[in-house]
Amino acid sequence: MNIQQLQGQQPQISQHSQTSQQMNSPNQYNLDSIPGDWKLAIIHQSAHKVGVAGKQICQCCGYHICEFQLKLSVDKEDLSFLGSGYPLYFTFIKNCIFLLCLHLMAAGQFNIISNYQGQDCLPKKRVKDETDQQCVRDIVTIFSLANRRKDQELQALQDILTLSSTFLMMAFLIYFRKNQKKLDVFCDLQELTPSDYTVMAYNINQPDKLKQYFEMDLFKLSRKINVKKINLAYDLSKINELNQIKLNILNKKKSSFLNQEYFDERELEDINNQIEIQKKNCDFTGLAFVSFKYERMKSDIIQIAKRQYLAPIINIFTGLNFNEGRMLDYYGHPIYVEVAPEPTDINWNVIYIWANHSIYRRIIGAIINIIVNIILSIVVYFSILKQVQVLGELSKNYNENDTFNEHYIKVHLYSLGYSMITVFINSFLLDELTRAIVSFQAYPTFSQVSLAIASKLSFMMFLNSVFMQCLIALESGNVYYAGGLAYNMTYFFISNAVIPPIIQMLDIPTILKSIKQYYYKKYGVLTQQELNELLEFPEHKIEASYAEVLKTMNVTFFVGPLVPLGYIFSIIGLILFYWAEKYQLLRSKTVKHTPSFQLSSRMTDSLQLIPIIHVFSSSAFKYFIQKNLSLISVIGLIIALIYHFIPNNRLVSLIWDFGEHDEYEKYCDSIFPFNYDRENPITQRKALRRWLRRQHRFEERKEKKMKSGEDYATLKQKEREIKLQLELFQ
Questions:
Q1: End-to-end Cα distance, the chain
Q2: Coil, strand or helix at 149
Q3: DSSP code per residue over 546-565
Q4: What average pLDDT does this structure show over 497-509?
Q5: What is the pLDDT of residues 265-315, one digit of tens each?
Q6: Residue 216: DSSP 8-state
Q7: Same structural domain for residues 389 and 498?
Q8: Which domain holds residue 589?
Q9: Reduced 3-state DSSP string for 682-697
Q10: Same domain as 239, residue 120
């Protein structure tokens, strides 16, 4: 029986096997069992699907089994159960498409039409010798700036339209931030999560006094504070070493199973005992997650703490993401507090590194990133230079034995091939390099990891795709001749509009997993833990998708003034990419980590560079082609620079009042699909066992509170919707 047949039996499994598992103790679910049970692994797979959760629970992870999948037409607000990160992500792509359409209507369409009506490029029939380096009128140059490079009157009008479009983009980006914040508030009110009630405190030297400090000593009993739960973060380095030893023992056990040899179970029991002993003796990292009874109490803690001013400034100019927590006096010792990330957003395996060595790793990682960028720039520079040399040799070898059209096709095929190679390099090689650098920097949350990867990757893609090509083109003087910048970028836009969506739909990670599943089903053996992980859908990498969108936006607005058809290709490409992303997320991906609002906000910060990029590139191409720079272009560049340094988040808060949106409900662990103690590797096992028992009692209470055909959860949802309408739309 293959994996597809097993998946087809999932409803029966849910009815029979899952029911029996619900009644069993979590201790009976052995993740080290060999061979693993494929039926249990499929149940685990269903618990990690993106869809509407049912009542049944996977005993392995405590997640609810997916009852049914969502339609592709689902509204972004209905994805709020994934946190605000994914609704904001799809809104981000939509707004990028709208931004391109806005500029296309304001200035781009005038570019395309006026370029088409120009006469500065010669028809092929009038070009006798390719070595003359004439601008040949074809499908590329006829819509490019080169075809009207001598028309000064139209250029003056184009400068005015460019400036007007820049103002429209600035206004839209402010409006986008307003909708972004509004959507985040909406999602926050729709879904209760542990972070709504929790602060992350670090630099703690006396963890045993935390409860007393927050409840009694901080406010001197002037305010009532009730701490519901405290979860401490520990150094996992020794645990990881023991887990590696355990993995070797399990591999030995699998080999014994395949060879039908005896295996001494005491060896595995000994290492498990060592791990449990080590969990009780792990070093405290100085970091804790403190949850309160009401969200208002968390807000009071954050407000009373002293704000830092130096760290945010350093982060703005360096991107190193130093700690920005607010300071409290903890019995004469400074500690720092900030709103806690979601439990699934925390990188528990490196948080102990972040707590002790983050500054050094962050700086060293930044230096490595600079070195990699320099090396990459040199490689790209010489590869493009080689392209120019080959094109020059093609022109020299052009003789009467080759017709002009044959020579012309060779040049264009070479440019097209180079552009496709560039897109493939951006999609694979740069991604791996960037992930390696960010992994070394040891960010404490996956949102920060995603932010660092997206920022670095989008910059490296932009550097590789455009900047170096423009530099070579300006040096060689080949902007609009055959095989020049205009051709390379046109083919890049075409490739970039088609290849990324195709790569997304091909879904190579899923194909590779299917091959591995087939192999292990037929020939291999895995532990239950390994089998569960094998059957999980590949994780959706939101950071790579953000980087792809940012790269497209930066390249389009940088080269758009020269090749305005790029706006149209990028709009088509982003639309295809949007639906490919949505399909993959809802059908063949899993979301293990909850992206935060800060990720989308920082990506929007990156969009603030668009006005600068567009005005600068418009001025640069105009000066290079026409040897002229207007006063309007200079004014536009100055305004764009000033706009970039305006704190738009602060501006949006001043213009629109979003008010306070603290949750009215009490902290209730039973309604949270995840929590800090259930995600913390040290406390996970016991916390999951307690939560499963509590969840069973919670479901029984809900059934007793059925009212008028509606269950308790439905009534609570209606209460939240009414509350949301009162707070947001009145």
A1: 58
A2: coil
A3: HHHHHHHHHHHHHHTTT-TH
A4: 88
A5: 888 889 999 999 998 888 888 899 999 988 888 888 888 887 766 656 655
A6: I
A7: yes
A8: 85-192+351-646
A9: CCHHHHHHHHHHHHHH
A10: no
